[in-house]
Design goal:
This protein is 75% helix and 0% strand. By secondary structure, the chain is an all-alpha fold. The termini are far apart.
């Protein structure tokens, strides 16, 4: 019995499809390796100014709950400013916040911020508020370092400075906490924000 073989159909992709796949791969690699440069310097400066004001108002409170309330309000204000200025600069730079380095920056920054919030609630419920400043500085510093790995080089340095402030707070009496928070969330944000605004265009 003779077996006849029909023509074998080629499974090779067309040159156009191969070129599209190569371009898509190259684009994905470039997005993963790119740096997120849309960090808003002037936004950081504004957050720093509001933090200085919050630190002063918090120092006037007569109860720990009043102090915590002031800093909670400041956190809401700071996040609002950060999101607005971040989106504004991202549009200006033509950078997406939902893909590539922008998405990576947010996803690496967010976990530490959420963990810091949860620990703040836990310490407040336990009545142990003396460690709140240390907690905020360390968690914010850690989040800034991890987020900065996909951003401009100065951002991880900012995170390291915050963590150093957090370590320093372990050796200072509670009466120094308002000054320490003013120097960190206020002074560091203003100083690094001015540098970023000058170096990376606002």
């Amino acid at each position: 019995m003779r077996i006849e073989y029909g023509p074998v159909q080629s499974r090779k992709e067309s040159p156009q499809n191969q070129a599209s796949e190569h371009l898509r791969y190259i684009r994905d690699v470039m997005e993963r390796s790119a740096s997120f440069t849309a960090v808003p310097g002037w936004g950081m400066v504004t957050v720093g100014v509001t933090a200085l004001l919050a630190s002063w108002i918090a120092s006037l409170q007569s109860t720990p709950d009043g102090t915590l309330l002031i800093w909670f309000i400041e956190a809401v204000v700071a996040v609002t400013i950060a999101i607005w200025t971040l989106r504004r600069k991202a549009r200006k730079c033509g950078v997406s916040l939902t893909s590539g380095p922008g998405r990576k920056y947010i996803l690496t920054l967010a976990p530490s911020m959420v963990a810091g919030l949860l620990f703040t609630v836990a310490l407040w419920q336990a009545g142990n508020q003396d460690l709140l400043a240390t907690l905020w500085l360390l968690f914010y510093g850690a989040g800034t370092i991890t987020g900065g790995t996909s951003s401009v080089r100065v951002i991880p340095v900012l995170g390291i400075c915050f963590m150093m402030m957090g370590i320093l707070s372990l050796f200072l009496p509670p009466a120094w906490m308002h000054l320490l928070l003013a120097l960190s969330f206020g002074g560091l944000h203003i100083g690094f924000g001015l540098y970023i605004a000058r170096k990376y265009g606002g």
